[in-house]
Amino acid sequence: MRTIKSGTKSTEVYYLNELLEELKYGVIVSDYFDAETDKAVKDFQLTNNLVVDGIVGLKTWSMLIEKSKGGFSSNSKLLSEQNLIDFANEHNLELAVIKAVNEVESGGKGFLVDGRPKILFEGHIFWRELEKRNIDPNDYSNNNSQDILFKKYTRSYYLGGTAEYARLEKAISLGVDKKFSDAAKCAVSWGLYQIMGFNALTIGYETIDKFVDKMYLNEGEHLKAFGLFLKKNNLISFLKNKKWADFALRYNGAGYKANKYDDKLMKAYTKFNS
């Protein structure tokens, strides 16, 4: 189901309005996302402890479909409006600023359907992390490990979803020493904001395992880790002053211009500040 928002005219909007009507919202069932649909979506998001942005993406679709079927499940793992309010207050940021950053920089949903945090395993980082621990990666590099251990970056071995956990476990099993487990977990990007594990200690976690344990809890913990990362790398001030290009350069890298991250942040801020 594709992401839709106010002003969209499509068959997905018709289905959205059908779901909202079933949930007793007073909307006209049509294929146009009008002001009443927007109001109903925001009320639904607030009632169900989701981020209130009026955008019907993966999380809102999932919850709408579940609720309309009369089902019940705890969505305590999902990021809530209160999480963003608390974050904004803690870091003295406008709520519209953090909502803009969340929209542009987050990975959409921080957990897989099986309840584990979303991850991506990076074989070239695993190589570097082994070297940091005085383990020679060449001793373990062979045809059997070529998908998890390599010197230069490549996208060729990404599998996505739960299959990334198979890659992680394979990396951990390369050696019995705890160093292999730590190196493997440090070579993974974790959760909603895809924070690399190798950042864990520098941003304030006692061990990589304690960082990973937090990533398993909820997206609120993912947001806390994101905040620690921003603070450690002196990025908060750019957000306070709404220096989108400066923030994007330091967070997204030199390629931010090609992907227009600064423009996306500015437009998202304008939307949430209106």
Summarize the structure.
This protein is mainly α and 274 residues long.
Number of strands: 3
Q: What pattern of helices and strands is seen along the backbone?
A: HHHHHEHHHEEHHHHHH
Overall mean pLDDT: 93
- Which range best describes the helical content: under 10%, 10-25%, 25-40%, 40-55%, 55-70% or over 70%? 40-55%
Low-confidence stretches: none
Describe the biggest sheet? Answer: 3 strands, antiparallel
Radius of gyration: 21 Å
How would you characterize the overall build of this protein?
With 274 residues, this protein is mainly α. Helices cover 51% and strands 3% of the residues. The chain contains 14 helices and 3 strands. A 3-stranded antiparallel β-sheet has the order 1-2-3. Strand 2 and strand 3 form a beta hairpin. Helix 7 runs antiparallel to helix 8 and helix 12 crosses helix 14. It starts with 10 loop residues before the first helix and ends with a helix. The relative contact order is 0.10.
